[in-house]
Amino acid sequence: MVATMNPDSAPRIANLLASMRTFLDKDTPKQVVAELLVLVPDAELEWWLLAASALGNDAPWGPTRVVAESHALPTPVDALRDAAPNAAKREQRGLGYRVQMLLKLAAANLVRTEFYVTLDCDVVLGGGLKRGDLVRGGKGLVQGSMGGPHAKRWLAHSLDALFGDTPGSANAAAIKYGDRSGGRESSFDLDGEFIHPVDGTETHVSGALGASSIYSRIARCGIETSLEGIGVTPAVLSTSVASGALHRLSQVGSSNWDTHLFKSLDSGLDWTEYGVYAAFACVSNVFEEKHGVFDDQTRLYDASLQEDGSKFSDETIMRDAFHGDDHAMTTNKKKKKSLFVVVQSIGGSDPRSAARALKPYVLPDESRKYW
């Protein structure tokens, strides 16, 4: 979880923790969540360490580990902002949310599990969470198609970030390395090796995430493909894929991976953390291996509710969000089960109204006598 003490975010964490205490499988809790990793600004480290100590190590989510952003990122945050002065002026929300994107990728170097789930302060569990809901058979649940007017740009620019720092870098790389092979398609190892086919077959590189032609991979991993493979927070990420993406980004420029991404903002790349992840997983040919669909009746969250955050104030919609599967059983309608509910501040909720809307669903029955 990426967290901060700002007045809008910090109070919402109570909603998330209450939902986790209520809905995590209490019979085998540590088989569902190994630990809660919280990434915070350096200036807030002591406060969060005290809060984690108060939660204790016997919580349903296991121990709570707090890590300062300076330990998670290779570049100081102030230096990152200095690397993108034009973006700092242009982006209305400032660059703080971009730092949060970096931290969700950087978590791959800190977690101790094969997969991890990214969380924001406006996310809560939507019902009972048991082993196998998020990861099954070595594959992580993927949300599905990303929507919204900016999605195609985000995903196209995220693919570009793996090959350069300007829009069109991915296509330029495909042309460059296609030409370099003398008219033949060269295989591409994301560790940086380019190897020509031998006798019409591709040469595979030991240790590569996958080897096929760079041209065909970039073409295959275009916008439409990536749109089907990623959403927003919460997300289930493969640790090896995320760390591989960081390694690739560090090879593209002459600086750290996080500095490369920030500098590219000034060059016109409007990347996102999940766009970079999806693009790398596709280009390295491991998306199906790590995220093949394993349950078409389960989704991470209700995209329609997430995209229209104002719906949190509608009691009928919220009741359906938390009990949609029960409602479907009584009406004989098939409805996907949503594992999380997102109540975003951009939808008009403040911490008090969000807590009021969520309280009936995230507090256990025995706590309701205090209403």
In short, what is this structure?
The protein has 371 residues and is mainly α.
What characteristics describe this protein?
mainly alpha; three-stranded mixed β-sheet; 44% helix; 371 residues; two-stranded parallel sheet; globular
What does this structure look like?
It is a single chain. By secondary structure, this protein is mainly alpha-helical. The chain is 44% helix and 11% strand. Helix 9 packs antiparallel against helix 10 (214-220) and helix 12 (239-252) packs across helix 14 (273-283). The radius of gyration is 21 Å and the shape is globular. It starts with 12 loop residues before the first helix and ends in a 9-residue tail after the last helix. The model is unreliable at 181-212 and 327-332 (pLDDT under 50).
- Sheet/helix structural class: mainly alpha
The strand order across the widest sheet is 4-11-10
Secondary structure: number of strands? 11
Helical content class: 40-55%
Largest sheet: 3 strands, mixed
Order of helices and strands: HHEHEHHHHEEEEHHEEHHEHHHHEHHEH
**What are the segments in which pLDDT stays under 50 over at least 5 consecutive residues?**
181-212, 327-332
